[in-house]
């Protein structure tokens, strides 16, 4: 049981290049999230999905696109990378519904992807 | 204005001391998550609670719904507890988006 797997773990891009971060979870979770973490800023939500085929914008969606064609995968795309997108990106997933006391709805995070845009 | 406020921002303790981190949140938060992040490391979910108290090993989390306040306690602290602890409130709307506190950086000295 791998949990949440993010690829790649590290990437260096030049301004204007494009790339896709992949998040895969094997827990059959409905909800998936992409966050970015910057020094002194804490975690900020980029986009999220409440189920296969659905996506929604978070706090800082500009410059990013996402897709959730399969329930287990949530892709984060940068069409034209900018230095301001240098950050550590975290994917997370969680189940929906169920009793909190039973452990449902607990968040599981990926290990993070460190992206540098030169 | 952040809907989730954490205190203190930084905390230094001697090994063995009892540590408390506080989190206050606003209306519209249905559950509270406590997360742990070691330096350069990933993020681990410690607790999620919507009422009462939960305990796991030396960690205890409590929540007071009426006062909209939660605390994370570390008993008999150890240097390996040094990490950033983050509280996050889950909203009631679809997606249960999280609003994060600013984090508390804990350093436990041997």
Largest sheet of chain B: 6 strands, mixed
The low-confidence runs of chain B, each spanning 5 or more residues with pLDDT under 50, are: none
Radius of gyration of chain A: 14 Å
C-alpha geometry of chain A: globular
Q: What is the end-to-end distance of chain B?
A: 37 Å
| Mean pLDDT value of chain B | 90
Total E-strand runs of chain B: 11
> What profile does the largest beta sheet of chain A have?
7 strands, mixed
Radius of gyration of chain B using CA atoms only: 13 Å
Which strand-content bin applies to the residues of chain B? over 45%
Quaternary structure annotation:
heterodimer
Task: Provide the structure class of chain A.
Answer: mainly beta
Short description:
The complex is a heterodimer of chains A (118) and B (110). By secondary structure, chain A is mainly β.
Task: Characterize the structure shown.
The complex is a heterodimer of chains A (118) and B (110). Chain A is mainly β and 118 residues long. Chain A has no helices and eleven strands. In chain A, strands 2, 4, 5, 6, 9, 10 and 11 form a seven-stranded mixed β-sheet that branches. In chain A, strands 1-3-8-7 form a four-stranded antiparallel β-sheet, with no helix packed on it. Chain B is mainly beta. In chain B, 0% of the residues lie in helices and 61% in strands. Chain B has no helices and eleven strands. Chain B has strands at residues 4-7, 10-14, 19-25, 29-37, 43-49, 52-56, 59-64, 69-74, 83-91, 98-100, 104-109. In chain B, a hairpin with a 6-residue loop joins strand 9 and strand 10 (98-100). Chain B is globular, with a radius of gyration of 13 Å. The model of chain B has no long low-confidence stretch (mean pLDDT 90). Chain A binds chain B through residues 31, 33, 42-45, 48, 50, 56, 58, 90, 92, 94, 96, 100, 105-112, and chain B through 31, 33, 35, 42-45, 48-50, 86, 88, 90, 94-98, 100-103.
């Amino acid at each position: 049981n791998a949990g949440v797997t993010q690829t790649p773990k590290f990437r260096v891009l030049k301004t204007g290049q494009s790339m896709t971060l992949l998040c895969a979870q094997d827990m059959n979770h409905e909800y998936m999230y992409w966050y970015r973490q910057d020094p002194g800023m804490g975690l900020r939500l980029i986009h999220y999905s409440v189920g296969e085929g659905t996506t929604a914008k978070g706090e800082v969606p500009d410059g990013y696109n996402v897709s959730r064609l399969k329930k287990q995968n949530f892709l984060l795309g940068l069409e034209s990378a900018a230095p301001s997108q240098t950050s550590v990106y975290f994917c997370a997933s969680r189940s929906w519904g169920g009793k909190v006391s039973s452990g449902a709805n607990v968040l599981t995070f990926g290990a993070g992807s460190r992206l540098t845009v030169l | 204005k952040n809907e989730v406020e954490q205190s203190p921002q930084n905390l230094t303790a001697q090994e063995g001391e009892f540590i408390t981190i506080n989190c206050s949140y606003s209306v519209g938060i249905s559950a509270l998550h406590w997360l742990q992040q070691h330096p350069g490391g990933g993020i681990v979910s410690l607790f999620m609670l919507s009422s009462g108290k939960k305990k796991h090993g030396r960690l205890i989390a409590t929540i007071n719904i009426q006062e909209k306040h939660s605390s994370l306690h570390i008993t008999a602290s150890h240097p390996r507890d040094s990490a950033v602890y983050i509280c996050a409130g889950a909203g009631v709307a679809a997606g249960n988006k999280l609003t994060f506190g600013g984090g508390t950086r804990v350093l436990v000295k041997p």
